[in-house]
TrEMBL record, chain A:
InterPro entries: ABC2_TM (IPR013525), ABC2_TM_bact-type (IPR047817), ABC_2_transport (IPR000412), Nod_factor_ABC_transporter (IPR051784)
Organism whose genome encodes this protein: Sinomonas humi
Primary site of residence: membrane
Start and end residues of each ABC transmembrane type-2 domain: 43-273
Name the record gives this protein: Transport permease protein
A molecular function GO annotation: ABC-type transporter activity
Automatic annotation (TrEMBL), chain B:
Organism field: Sinomonas humi
Pfam families to which the protein is assigned, alphabetical: ABC_tran
Lineage, uppermost ranks: Bacteria, Bacillati, Actinomycetota, Actinomycetes, Micrococcales
ABC transporter domain: residues covered: 12-242
Keyword match Metal-binding: no
Entry protein name: ABC transporter
From TrEMBL, chain C:
GO cellular component: ATP-binding cassette (ABC) transporter complex
Designated name of the protein: Transport permease protein
Lineage, highest ranks first: Bacteria, Bacillati, Actinomycetota, Actinomycetes, Micrococcales
Keywords: Antibiotic resistance, Cell membrane, Membrane, Transmembrane, Transmembrane helix, Transport
Presence of the UniProt keyword Transport in the record: yes
Gene Ontology molecular functions: ABC-type transporter activity
Pfam family, one: ABC2_membrane
PROSITE patterns for this protein: ABC_TM2
Transmembrane residue ranges: 39-58, 78-103, 140-158, 164-185, 249-270
Length: 276, 314, 280
């Protein structure tokens, strides 16, 4: 508590790259995230894990009885439950990441005013983005771990490769989360946020989650093959059966590019998103 | 008023600041300097652009044009660097509703990269300052409006800021809390902290501000110390007389020359003059019988209303 | 704020306002709610048209292509599309109604406090609850009608009584929605109750109420979910109407009575909770 003098009022500029947006303190945002998790009801955290499990039970067991077995990625027939389980994991990774990077951000921005208060500190938008993406991926990681466990218990896992489902799910989540914030930066009202749902729902329904792509006419197949979720679904399926091919690399590469482009895009949009 | 102890060098320099929302200029070419250690006020009616200006100073709102220099840096290019030295009390409390009261202070401090051991001690000091010690573990949404305000103010001091931006800091506070805050701000000022504040309480502005600007529709209408502004834009005293709602206008026609300036309001007539009692004598001498009369010193409020108009519809 | 305009507008006598409000109050508030839904008009229209298209294509056509070729699958003698379509309509109505009865109700009491404006007029809380329900009913009616038209276009409604799916959809929505509304009216603080309801009640009901396959396909231990689920009762009624599913008469009666009872009890309970909360 010393007396301030004139030279205390002269600041030296920070010349490191991104210094306008980044103060290298994302860990403070992460720390907050964990403190919230700790003080919040654990049921809330755990509940996110159930949705794909319910889908797996309903479709895998119920519908599975009617459908019987289907052709797996290696060509060998597998049970319907084993067919949809990895796809559901990809879908849930996508949904969680999208929710956390769009609606969650939007709410905290416009209603909780959380980011306003963070931005009045020495944090920059980039710190917040990194911290929030990390938290989203952390939740995604927990759910993926839980879901893979459920698959094991249901006897849907036949290869040790399936352990890779967890990091793969986090990768899929990262791909979507890196784009989500950039998209949210264009949204000003609730109504506009609904656009996200209009895009995600068809992607979920058409990305070969519940039935093979071959049921569609060829042009439709091309469209679906261009969508990120399809790559996620296929990647997970290949991992779950250990049936790798060149395509596995293609899927991975797709996500790598998606993450890099998404992060660059989000970084560019940080000002529009946070500094209105 | 406490005067700065040293040669004043501006720590905030604003030149032709403009912020446009759509095609409306919320801030429309504002320029001012704030020397180190000064307590600087922004007054103005609702929607004048005060909060917007404050947000640009904090670097959390991108300006449309103009220059801004905070302690030698542009807050838009060096946001984190500048804000590390800023304490901000926004107009609307934005406490972290998901965290408890004490955690609000600690986590906020972590955003400045402050150490946990420093924060543990600092948080307790600030809880005491805000008189919220017994609420340390409470949820934020269980606090009353005034308590939240006090917590927000306490939070702004967590990093021992050099410049404190206070946007209507005392709105919602009871008189005790208001006086505690004034006292605290005086002490910060004595330490050389620069204060920038907005308020709708004119007594507060007179109490706290060394110098202020009156803003209307995004532009500066007047600038000076409270005393200067009163001297320049008002007489020394104001006489308020009432003749009854339907007779005020008629009576006012007969008041010419009783003061420097006459203002007719729906419910009363204001006579601005150097000596109110004398003016009242003159009025009585003209055979007018006001229902009530009141002589008071001219205040910043008179200046404010004079400069920004009384009507809400503009 | 000019007081003395030459012509004063004469307001109707307070007694008249009170009498009118007693009679038509619910409708006045329904109008209020419908007007505020206009902000979401685009969303409502796009979802009303988009959802049926998406679900009928992906489930009814896509999924059907692997279900229908299976020898074990047969659905009351019709294709999978016709089997799933009425249940998808009922599900969409129930989910919409659930959404309209959670956050908007909380919004009315707590966030934007839209109920408290009318509350200081001659309207009474019960009328606010009724008005809200009626407005949602209008939305469901529109949504179910659009869904039905799209079903026709897909050739998924063959029976001449198919149109009955529209009132059935609204009824099922309300049977689930009004008790939920009553519950939402009691919540003082939103602590994720709504997400929990979404995740642990709405979602499981959608998945385990014989929407995608007959209830009997599920293990016996899980079939009780269908029996208590308004969705299953709605689904069965819907299939009765659109594909002529045959069921004993008593079971049909059970479906109707169960749904109606839920709706009525929910409404009564909701009115009580509204009055309790607002007059507290
Ligand atoms: N995010 C925004 N988008 C659009 N317009 C805005 C936004 N923020 C402020 N404005 C507009 O800018 C103008 C100035 O607002 P500002 O909040 O700076 O006023 P103020 O002087 O702080 O008023 P008050 O005394 O009411 O707090 C207003 O006309 C307001 O409507
Ligand atoms: Mg303001």
């Amino acid at each position: 508590m010393s007396i301030l003098h004139d030279d205390d009022y002269i600041l030296a500029p920070d010349r490191r790259p991104l210094s306008a947006l980044y103060s290298r303190n994302a860990r403070a945002v992460i720390e907050r995230g964990f403190r919230v998790i700790k003080s919040q009801n654990w049921v809330v955290l755990v509940s996110g894990f159930f949705e794909p499990v319910f889908y797996l039970l309903s479709m895998g067991i119920g519908l599975g009885r009617l459908v019987g077995s289907v052709q797996g990625p290696s060509g060998a027939p597998i049970s319907y439950a084993a067919y949809i389980a990895p796809a559901l994991l990809a879908v849930s990774a996508m949904n969680g990441a999208i929710y956390d990077s769009t609606w969650n951000i939007f709410f905290k921005m416009h209603f909780g005013k959380l980011y306003q208060s963070m931005l009045y500190t020495s944090l920059g938008p980039f710190d917040i983005a990194v911290g929030e993406i990390f938290m989203a991926l952390f939740r995604g990681f927990l759910y993926a771990l839980g879901f893979t466990g459920v698959m094991a218990v249901m006897g849907l896992i036949a290869t040790p490769w399936a352990l890779l489902l967890v990091p793969a799910a986090v990768t899929v989540a990262f791909g979507f989360a890196s784009f989500g914030m950039a998209i949210t930066s264009y949204m000003k009202t609730f109504q506009q946020m609904d656009v996200i749902t209009f895009v995600m729902l068809p992607m979920f329904l058409f990305s070969a989650t519940f039935y093979p792509l071959s049921v569609y006419p060829e042009p439709v197949q091309w469209v679906v093959e261009a969508l990120p979720l399809w790559h996620g679904v296929e990647l997970m399926r290949e991992i779950s059966t250990g049936a790798f091919s060149v395509l596995t690399l293609v899927h991975l590469l797709y996500y790598l590019v998606m993450i890099l482009v998404g992060l660059a895009f989000t970084t560019r949009r940080l000002r529009a998103l946070f500094l209105r | 008023m406490v005067t700065s102890v040293r040669a004043a060098q501006p720590v905030i320099t604003a030149r032709n600041l403009v912020k446009a929302y759509g095609d409306v200029n919320a801030v429309d070419g504002i320029s001012f300097d704030v020397p180190a250690g000064e307590s600087f006020g922004l007054l103005g009616p609702n929607g004048a652009g005060k909060s917007t200006t404050m947000r640009m100073i904090g670097g959390v709102s991108q300006r449309t044009s103009g220059q801004l220099d905070i302690m030698g840096l542009d807050p838009e290019l060096q946001g984190p660097e500048v804000r590390a030295h800023l304490g901000v009390v926004p107009q609307q409390d934005n406490l972290d509703e998901e965290l408890r009261v004490r955690d609000n202070l600690i986590i906020y401090g972590r955003y400045f990269g402050l150490s946990r051991s420093y924060l543990a001690q600092r948080a307790d000091e600030l809880l005491e300052f805000a008189q919220l010690e017994d609420k340390a573990k409470a949820r934020v949404d269980s606090l009353s409006g005034g308590m939240k305000r006090r917590l927000t103010i306490a939070r702004s001091l967590i990093n021992d800021p050099k410049i404190l931006l206070l946007d209507e800091p005392t709105t919602g506070l009871d008189p005790q809390a208001r006086h505690v805050l004034w006292d605290r701000l005086f002490r910060l000022k004595e330490r050389g902290v620069t204060l920038v504040l907005t308020t709708h309480y004119m007594d507060e502005a007179e109490q706290l501000c060394d110098r202020l600007i009156v803003v209307d529709k995004g532009q500066i209408m007047a600038e000076g110390s409270p005393a200067e502004l009163i001297r320049k834009h008002s007489s020394r005293e104001v006489l308020e007389v009432r003749f009854g709602t339907d007779r005020n206008a008629a009576a006012a026609d007969q008041l010419d020359g009783t003061g420097d300036r006459i203002e007719v309001l729906p419910d009363r007539v204001l006579v601005y003059s150097e000596n109110g009692e004398e003016s009242l004598e003159v009025i009585r001498a003209r055979g007018l019988r006001p229902m009530t009369s009141l002589v008071r010193r001219a205040s910043l409020e008179d200046v404010f209303l004079r400069l920004t108009g009384r009507s809400l519809i503009d | 704020m000019t007081e003395d305009s030459a012509q004063r507008l004469e307001v109707q006598a307070p007694e008249v306002s009170a009498a009118k409000a007693r009679r038509w109050g619910s409708f006045y508030f329904m109008e209020h709610m419908l007007r505020s839904m206009r902000a979401y008009a685009v969303t409502i229209i796009v979802t009303s048209v988009g959802n049926p298209l998406l679900y009928l294509f992906s489930m009814g056509v896509g999924l059907a292509s692997i279900v229908d070729r299976s020898p074990t699958a047969h659905f009351a003698g019709v294709g999978y599309l016709a089997f799933a379509a009425p249940a998808l309509l009922v599900s969409s109505s129930v989910m919409t109604c659930a959404n309209e009865m959670m956050f908007p109700v909380m919004d009315g009491f707590k966030w934007r406090r839209i109920y408290y404006g009318p509350h200081v007029t001659p309207l009474v809380p019960g009328q606010l609850a009724a008005g809200h329900v009626m407005a949602v009913g209008v939305r469901l009616l529109v949504q179910c009608s659009v869904f039905f038209l799209i079903m026709l276009a897909f050739g998924a409604a063959v029976s001449p009584t198919s149109w009955l799916i529209i009132p059935i959809g609204v009824l099922a929505g309300m049977a689930f929605g009004t008790p939920l509304m009553a519950y939402a009216a009691r919540i003082e603080k939103e602590n994720f109750q709504f997400s929990m309801i979404q995740r642990f009640i709405v979602m499981p009901l959608f998945l385990f109420s014989g929407t995608f396959y007959p209830l009997e396909t599920m293990p016996r231990a899980m079939q009780w979910i269908g029996w208590i689920s308004p969705l299953w009762h709605g689904n069965q009624l819907g299939r009765l109407a659109t594909i002529g599913l045959t069921e004993p008469l008593w079971l049909v009666a059970v479906h109707v009575v169960y749904l109606a009872a839920l709706g009525v009890i929910g409404m009564i309970w909701a009115r009580r909770n509204y009055a309790r909360r607002m007059n507290a």
